[in-house]
Amino acid sequence: MSRNKYSQLEIMIKNPSGLHARPASLFVKIASAFKSDIVVEKDGEEVNGKSILALLMLAAGIGSKLRISAIGDDSEEALAALQELADNKFHEG
Amino acid sequence: MSNSLFQELKFRGIPASAGVAIGNAVIVHSRTSSYEDMKEKTIEPAMAEAEVERFKHVLDTTRQEIIAMQRQIRNKFGSREIDIFDAHLLIVDDQMLKNEVVERIRNEHLNAETAYKRTIKRYIDALLVMPDSYIKERADDIKDVASRIINHLSTSDKPAFLYSAEPHIIIAMDLTPSETAMFNRETILGMAVVTGSTISHSAILARSMQLPALVGLPLEAYEAIRRAGEPQVIIDGATGDIIINPAPETMTRYRERIEQNHDFEIRLSAEKNLPVETLDGHRIKLMANLGSADEIDGITHSGAAGVGLFRTEYMFMNRDTLPTEEEQYHTYSELTRRMPDAPLVVRTLDIGGDKLASHIDAMVEANPFLGLRAIRLCLKARKDIFRTQMRAVLRASAHGDIRVMYPMISCTEEVREIQELVKELMRELTAEGHAFNRNIKTGIMIEVPAAALLAYTLAPMVDFFSLGTNDLIQYTMAIDRTNDRVSYLYQPTHPAVLELIQRTIAAGRDHRIETAICGEIAGNPLYTPLLVGMGIEELSMSPGSIGVIRRVIRKLNKREAEVAVSKALRGSTAEDALEISLKMLRQAAPDIAELVMPVH
Fold first, then answer.
1. To probe the interface with B, which of A13, A15, A19, A20 has the most B CB atoms within 10 Å?
2. Complex ipTM, two decimals?
3. What is the DSSP secondary structure assignment for residue B381, as one 8-state letter?
4. How many CB atoms within 10 Å of residue B499?
5. Is the pLDDT of residue B73 over 90?
6. Is A33 on the interface with B (CB under 8 A)?
7. Which pTM value belongs to this model?
């Protein structure tokens, strides 16, 4: 896998209950569908975006800002998919 | 010593749901306790790789188990509730967690369950100290998965009951309503529980699933089963008997009983289409109580005239989020379509007391049964939930004979407030172009003594009454029905209780509205003579009881029953009234009188 491609994106958590189990699991499912490594950072803490436990540890409540980095060939596609998920408030309207 | 382990032993608990079951006992532990109670152990370094393999194998088993459970629940409740299991699956397969556990097994020489427990504990502890309460609650999801995995890893604890493929009998210290609601009916033959009463929700659910069950299982019996390594047992839900390690003669005797019960069922179902009327021509409507939507098949087969009580609270349990208007609309519409022309009485959310859904109201009250439950919660704290539910009920009323009923009414103001709100919702729905039945029949539950005493004032405000006798008895007698120590005061035939029931029926008759009973006494033939004598017009019960009650009613004479009631009301004890009812039952239907047991 090429390590040259690197993309980054910032999202804001907009669903009222934050990044709890259900939205986090959607996130992991989408992230895991791509070959790229996904790293999620909140307030300086970086975790593996394909680990639900790690994401839950971020305790990202409503209004939290997350910086998502993807490293790999399909990094752009991965970030586009994650962006869409966040824009849709993790389907929790 | 080894002898006594395999000896036949007989104990008696309290009968909770009739029927005989024979099968292997499986002790189930509350899932939350097993995770923390586990003992830590180390292994020989040479065993590390084998231990890693065992760990991976258990992850596979757990994954399959969750997928199976997900499928089961999807069939039962619809699709949205299963999302949470997706999260559970991701926790099982979490790469970070898996690596850390494997590393601990290899480097610290811990056995798999200890390594897993220590690893997961770090995450749980971290979540528990987080300020956001919603995120904090996610610790429960992780604990749930952790307990499941650790349960599989430790040989002493059998896998929990949700997914065991072999038919078995559940033995437990305690079962929560949500645990009972997740039973797999394909493989569970019956259950025996140490705590709880016959009107605890687990017992009620067992009856609605027609599972033989007993409560108040003696601790010695529980211990004997544990020591004997989960042996074969027989439970008799009609007598409360449990036999451990039954001898061959005992087995034969009970097999015959099962056959007799089966024959009896067949004879009863042959009467399915006969009119439900007394010998002197008084008709009574028999309806079914419905817990979850998938029980509807049993109801259509039972010969019930409709659903007299749909307990909507189970739609709100075992899940993370509230059911949406669309989801509820779909469920109610589907149910009413399944029973065209038959009434479907939807009871609005009755939550609080012993039926808690943590995401609805997390407040801990000192006396939940006297607290903000049912309609109180809906009107005072969670009007949003009530509005959503009522909009769904109203919209579904366009598709069939849907009626709505409000639980725990204690004053006229509550009824007025509901009526105002319903008017407002109707205006809303009209403006949005939704169809609904503008004349939807509206009833209230009479389960608070104040409402029974106020029945003459309440009757002109509504279209029907439904006596919720389980709560009416508990509130009249001032006892907590989940407290075993005062269960002796749970007396359905106490003269004061009978008087409140009679007053409610009389008020309904005077104002020409129907009065039904949907409490447990409706489905117990022991009380049928008294209820018929008091002039009840409708009884709603678990579908399994309909055949028996139909037969009893067809053999009773209403005139005679009225005389018996006036005697019972003059009596001074519950015992006297019960004796009078039993005597009538013995005369009318001796075969059924043999089977009955009072409600405890």
1. A20
2. 0.77
3. I
4. 14
5. no
6. no
7. 0.63
